[in-house]
Amino acid sequence: MRISVIGCGYLGAVHATCMARLGHEVVGIDVDEQKIEGLRNGRPPFYEPELEQLLNDGAVTDNLTFTTDMALASGSDVHFVCVGTPQKQGENAADITHVDAAVAALLPFLAAGDLVVGKSTVPVGTAGRLCALIALQQPEAHVVWNPEFLREGHAVADTIHPDRFVYGVKDGSEDHPAVAILDEVYAAPLASGTPRLVTDHATAELVKSAANSFLATKISFINAMAEVCEAVGADVTQLADAIGMDDRIGRKFLNAGIGFGGGCLPKDIRAFMARAGELGADQALTFLREVDAINMRRRTRVVELARDLCNGSLLGKRVTVLGAAFKPESDDVRDSPALSIAAQLQLQGAVVTVTDPKALANAARRFPELHYEPDTSAAVERADALLLLTEWQEYRELDPYALVESVSSPRVLDGRNVLDAAKWRAAGWAYRGLGRP
Ligand code: UDX
Question: What is the per-residue pLDDT across 144-185, written as a single tens digit (0 to 9) for each?
Fold first, then answer.
């Protein structure tokens, strides 16, 4: 099929590449010249495992072009809207000006029978509004809301083999003409058994907000348990293992630590609360305020623990932060708890060095005042304390016996509870985890 993908950020660049991989003829469109130039040359604007390789795969490049010219959307049967919906400045609500601008720019090029497929995370009601707007210009085009659930770091696999597809169509009916067209787009994953649900527009939009709210709640739940564990000297990792063995609960997303960050969970739960408020349903989501508060409290807690670990004062202490990305296998530092903690430590007088395998350039743009060192060995040299804040595999595998020689004082704070506490202690380290004795 002929497909246009509007917006070539984390979501769109992956989606365009994967659609080309599925054999469709794809044009990726973005207003950012630099991003498009990079993509044309096989360079994604961010780090995502497998993406660069796929982008340079002959079978993909034959099917894929990138442009800043919206006119090239003309002739596509399906137009995916993949632009960002960041948090509005000074407000909880989502800023959907990019979605509105993308659709407005696309309107002149829509033909009868075309599908406009929204993948961006939007406040419920957006699809209905866009549907009415598009109908004024091209009454025979269809609007589908098809939320994206991909995780950064696994984006290619999540796009080609998702857990499910959700198609939100105007009447919520399986017989809606858009359903068969989208089935053709996703023919390969559907044939391999990926389930697909057809809903109305509002339900599809809500599925995404609800899924992210549930995940955020699960993380904040276990972090709340970590607070209680700390108060009594219990171990939250064992608690998570034990409750996670109950099938109804499940072990995934029960890793206590420094909390969630990134470009999705924090802003999506806030936007959901704001939208519920507009709809007069704010009471239904007041628990998300607590989810957010528990999450933000983790960052303060880590700073306190780091101070404790450094004998009560951070002033002049050389602290090495291992990890700047909001999670491993990503160079994304949007709302990264690791970076926010690094900045707070620096404000409190610590001499902070941040290292990360992929995210240092993005981190330096966001917090230019921090000191960055790409080489792990150089970063830990003469440190008074190490803080493992993003659980990259190479940090999980650090050898405490070898490392003890290069630091000034063997102190480690394991912000993700991924190190073997007994081994580190045996090697002479003062070890602190989160919610662990
Ligand atoms: C998330 C959703 O998972 C995805 O479905 C949606 O489409 C976009 O938002 P992503 O932001 O890529 O994806 O990251 P995710 O893997 O969900 O992790 C989010 C944050 O939670 C990270 O900061 C991670 O470190 C943290 N986390 C995750 C925990 O602190 N504990 C856990 O047990 C799991």
Answer: 999 999 999 999 999 999 999 999 999 999 999 999 999 999
Domain presence at residue 203: no
| Nearest-angstrom CA–CA distance, 224 and 244 | 16
Nearest atom within ligand 1 for CA of residue 152: 12
**Residue with CA closest to ligand 1 atom 6:** 149
**Atom of ligand 1 minimally distant from the CA of 390:** 25
Domain count for the chain? 2
Assess whether the C-beta atom of 253 lies below 6 angstroms from ligand 1: yes
Question: Which residue, 194, 224, 249, sits at the end of a domain?
Answer: 194
Q: Taking the chain (437 residues) in consecutive chunks of 10 residues, what is each chunk's mean pLDDT? A: 97 98 98 98 96 95 97 98 96 97 98 98 98 97 98 96 98 98 98 98 98 98 98 98 98 98 97 98 97 98 97 98 97 98 98 98 97 98 98 98 97 98 98 96
Residues 166 and 251 in one domain: no
Q: Is the CB of 166 under 6 A from ligand 1?
A: no
CATH number at residue 44: 3.40.50.720
Ligand 1 center to residue 403 CA distance, Å?
A: 30
Up-side HSE of residue 173: CA atoms within 13 Å toward CB?
4
131 catalytic, yes or no? no
Taking the complete model, does pTM exceed 0.85, yes or no?
yes
- How far, in Å, from the CA of 428 to the mean position of ligand 1? 33
382 & 302 share domain: yes
Same domain, 101 and 24: yes
Mutate to test the pocket of ligand 1, among 149, 219, 392 (most ligand atoms within 8 A of CB): 219
From 295, 326, 392, 417, the mutation candidate for ligand 1 (largest count of ligand atoms within 8 A of CB) is 326
- Give pLDDT tens digits for 358-393: 999 999 999 999 999 999 999 999 999 999 999 999
In the predicted model, what is the mean pLDDT of the chain? 97
User: Which candidate in 18, 131, 229, 264 is catalytic?
Assistant: 264
- What domain range is 239 assigned to? 234-437
Examine the domain organization and report whether 261 and 382 are in the same domain: yes
